[in-house]
Design goal:
This protein is an alpha/beta fold. It has helices at residues 3-29, 81-84, 89-103, 123-130, 132-137, 156-164, 240-254, 309-316, and strands at 32-35, 38-41, 50-51, 57-63, 107-111, 141-144, 198-203, 214-220, 226-229, 232-235, 274-277, 292-293, 319-324, 333-336, 339-343, 360-370, 375-387, 394-402. A hairpin with a 2-residue loop joins strand 14 and strand 15 (339-343).
C-alpha cells in the first residue's frame, strides 16, 4: 500500500471519528449549554403562535387540581379500598398521559393546585413530575397557581418563574411593563397583584384570511391563596389591579383590525371571544345551585370579598366562559349574566375527592365559521368532560357559546 493511500485512509478514519463524536454531542448535549463545569439546560420552546387547526378547531384540555406530591411514594386520597394499596401520584401521571393521547389537544391549561406543597420538600422536583407528561408531549401549555402550590420550598413568584421556564410552557410571570398596556399608554398600572396574570392569543387557521389575526383570546389570572381580611381568614380574590389590566387588554383586542381583510366580511365586525382561567371561584358561583350541567356536590369555597370580577367580565363583553378549579367534587357549568362558569372537576389522586366518583378532566373546543373561501372567526365554543375509567367516558357535552344564537 503506497503512502498516499495510507494517508487517505487515515484521514477518512479521523473524519469519520470526528463526525461520530459531533453526532453524539448533538444527540445528547444539544439542549445544554455549559456554565463553568455545570451543564445549563435550554428551554424547549413551543411552536408559536397558538393557532387553529386547518380543520377550523382549537382544542383545550383543562387540568384542575393535580395536587401532585412526591411521586410514587405519595398515596391517593378518597379512592375505593380496593384501589388504595396501588394508588399514588403515578395514577395522576397516567391519567394525564391518557388524556393527551386520547384527545390530542392543541393546548393544555392547568388551573391551579398543580402540586400539593405540604406533601413535598422540593417544589421544583414536584413541578417537573407533575407537568412531565405535558412537556413530553411537546404541546404548548400554561398554568396558573392555586392556594396550595406555594406551601413547599418556593414562593408564588418563584413558582411562576420556574413554570415559565419549563419545556413548551407559554406561562408568564406577569405582563411585561414595557408592553402596550403599561403606564406610558393611557395611564395603565405598572404593577399587577399576584403572579401569573397574562393573556395568550390564538390565531386563525393557516392560509385563512384571519391567519394573522387573533380570533380567540385566553386570559389567565392569579386568584391568590389565603389571606387575613378584617380579622377573618379567607381565600384571596382577584384584585382591582388585575381587573383593570384585563379590561385594558380586552379593549385592545376589540379594537384590533386587519387592513388585509375585506371590509364587507361579517367576521371582521365581531369581537373575538375570550376564555378566562383561574383557580378560586368568585362568590357569585354560589348562586348556581340549579340550571347547571354537571354535579354540585360541595359548597363553593371562595373569598368573603367580592371584588366585582363578574361585573368586569360582563362589561368587557368578550368573555364567554370561565374555567376554575379548587372545589374538587364540583364539575358543573352554570351561567351567570350570560357567561358560563365551569369547574374542571378534581383531576389528581392526591387531592381530596369522592370514593367511587372517578377523577375527571374538561375539554373545551372552539370551532371557526366556514366562510365562502376561508375559515373565519370563532363560531361556537363547546365543552365536555372525560372520566378516568376504562373507556375515558365522555359526559355532559354542551354548547357554551354560539355566535348566531347569542345575537
Amino acid at each position: 500500500m503506497d503512502s498516499a493511500t495510507e494517508n487517505w485512509k487515515n484521514s477518512f478514519t479521523f473524519l469519520s471519528l470526528i463526525s461520530a463524536i459531533l453526532y453524539l454531542i448533538h444527540i445528547h448535549f444539544a439542549p445544554q449549554l455549559f456554565l463553568g463545569n455545570e451543564p445549563v439546560r435550554v428551554k424547549k420552546s413551543a411552536n408559536l403562535p397558538l393557532r387553529f387547526r386547518s380543520d377550523g378547531t382549537f382544542k383545550i384540555l383543562q387540568v384542575a387540581d393535580m395536587h401532585f406530591g412526591s411521586g410514587k411514594i405519595t398515596r391517593c386520597r378518597d379512592v375505593l379500598d380496593s384501589e388504595f394499596e396501588y394508588c399514588s401520584d403515578l395514577n395522576t401521571t397516567r391519567f394525564l398521559k391518557r388524556m393527551i393521547e386520547s384527545e390530542n389537544p392543541d393546548f393544555i391549561a392547568f388551573t391551579g393546585d398543580n402540586i400539593f406543597g405540604s406533601s413535598t420538600n422540593d417544589a421544583a422536583e414536584s413541578l417537573l413530575k407533575a407537568f412531565g407528561p405535558a412537556m413530553e408531549s411537546g404541546l404548548p401549555w400554561a398554568a396558573v397557581l392555586g392556594n396550595h402550590d406555594h406551601e413547599s420550598s418556593m414562593n408564588r413568584e418563584e413558582l411562576m418563574s420556574f413554570i415559565s421556564l419549563m419545556d413548551y410552557s407559554v406561562s408568564q410571570i406577569n405582563p411585561s411593563v414595557s408592553g402596550p398596556t403599561n403606564s406610558a399608554k393611557g395611564g395603565m398600572i405598572t404593577r399587577i397583584d399576584g403572579f401569573g396574570n397574562y393573556n395568550l392569543r390564538v390565531f386563525g387557521a393557516p392560509g385563512s384570511t384571519l391567519a394573522n389575526s387573533s380570533v380567540l383570546n385566553l386570559y389567565f389570572l392569579d386568584s391568590g391563596g389565603k389571606i387575613i381580611y378584617q380579622g377573618f381568614r379567607t381565600y384571596d380574590w382577584i384584585r382591582e389591579s388585575q381587573l383593570q389590566w384585563l379590561r385594558r387588554v380586552s379593549q385592545e383586542f376589540q379594537g384590533q383590525k386587519d387592513a388585509s381583510i375585506h371590509p364587507t366580511d361579517v367576521s371582521t365586525h365581531v369581537t373575538p371571544p375570550a376564555l378566562a382561567f383561574f383557580h378560586i371561584p368568585i362568590p357569585e358561583v354560589r348562586q348556581l345551585y340549579y340550571k347547571i350541567v354537571g354535579q354540585y356536590q360541595e359548597g363553593v369555597a371562595c373569598s368573603i370579598v367580592n371584588s366585582g370580577a363578574l361585573q368586569s367580565f360582563v362589561s368587557m363583553g368578550d368573555v364567554k366562559a370561565v374555567f376554575m378549579g379548587h372545589d374538587h367534587k364540583n364539575d358543573f357549568c352554570g351561567n351567570l349574566d350570560g357567561i358560563w362558569f365551569c369547574y374542571g372537576g378534581g383531576f389528581g389522586y392526591h387531592g381530596y375527592g369522592k370514593a367511587g366518583w372517578p377523577r375527571r378532566a374538561r375539554i373545551i373546543v372552539a370551532q371557526l365559521e366556514k366562510g365562502k373561501n376561508s375559515w373565519m372567526g370563532v363560531e361556537s365554543i363547546k365543552t365536555w368532560k372525560r372520566l378516568d375509567n376504562e373507556n375515558l367516558s365522555k359526559i355532559d357535552e354542551q354548547i357554551l357559546w354560539d355566535r348566531w344564537l347569542s345575537r
